[in-house]
Write a structure and sequence with these properties.
The structure is a single chain. The chain is mainly α. The protein contains three helices and no strands. The model has no long low-confidence stretch (mean pLDDT 82).
Length: 87
């Protein structure tokens, strides 16, 4: 930050943000789709387990259930909103 004449406290970090950049909106979406196509569904489920708890009792193609654990509620609700927006 100091190399760019900025104060360290002005650095803001947005955890969990993965930007997809392209020359056009469609190119960015194509990159997003390509990356998601590379994720094995079981790996994706294991990641969701860490974010939303055990989802093994729910069919993979059904809507995402409302999180019940208070510890996971905030992050899980954000993921749920994102999933609903993309679909």
């Amino acid at each position: 930050m100091t190399a760019h004449e900025r104060l360290p406290e002005h650095l803001l970090i947005m955890p969990g943000v993965t930007p997809f950049v392209g020359r056009t909106r469609q190119e960015a979406w194509d990159k997003f789709d390509l990356l998601n196509d590379l994720v094995d569904p079981l790996l994706g489920l294991s990641y969701l387990y860490g974010q939303m708890g055990d989802l093994s009792g729910y069919p993979v193609d059904d809507p995402v259930p409302e999180p019940s654990s208070p510890e996971l509620r905030s992050l899980a609700n954000n993921l749920l909103r994102l999933a609903c927006r993309i679909i």
